[in-house]
Design a protein that fits this description.
The chain has about 140 residues and is mostly helical. It has one domain. It is about 95% helix and about 0% strand. The two termini are about 40 Å apart.
């Protein structure tokens, strides 16, 4: 019963770790998309600027590039937070896994001791029957 509870706790920790890992992957993918979009937009801006662009167009491009930079900064923070949460979840899962392994080891040891005691008891009963038989008693 204890082993089942410990194993269930480890399973929940593993699921939490998987969810955190998924979040890290999603945040990293979103950051890569934003960075790619930012580079593409900057290239487009450079091309248009070299071809000649008006003041309003220049201001619009710069405003949008500033917004993209802010979005990249925020997504970088989200990724960093997700990685920290994932690292914490990993440590919690490792701790739960170690506990589950320790409990499993104890349970196996107790089961082995129980088998040894059972064999000894059975041997003692067999010896007592053999002694009674040898001394002429009933079987």
């Amino acid at each position: 019963m204890v082993q089942r509870a410990v194993n269930e706790h480890e399973r929940r920790r593993a699921e939490a770790l998987a969810a955190c890992e998924k979040r890290v992957t999603e945040c990293a993918a979103r950051l890569a998309e934003l960075e790619d979009y930012q580079k593409s937009y900057a290239r487009d801006f450079a091309a248009r600027a070299s071809a000649g662009i008006g003041g309003a167009g220049l201001r619009d491009y710069q405003t949008f590039l500033a917004r993209l930079s802010e979005a990249v900064r925020q997504q970088t923070q989200l990724l960093s937070r997700a990685q920290s949460e994932r690292d914490a979840a990993l440590r919690m899962w490792q701790s739960a896994a170690q506990r589950a392994e320790a409990v499993g080891h104890m349970v196996r040891r107790w089961q082995a001791e129980e088998r040894i005691l059972s064999v000894r008891l059975e041997q003692r009963e067999t010896d007592e029957r053999a002694q009674r038989t040898a001394s002429g008693g009933a079987v």
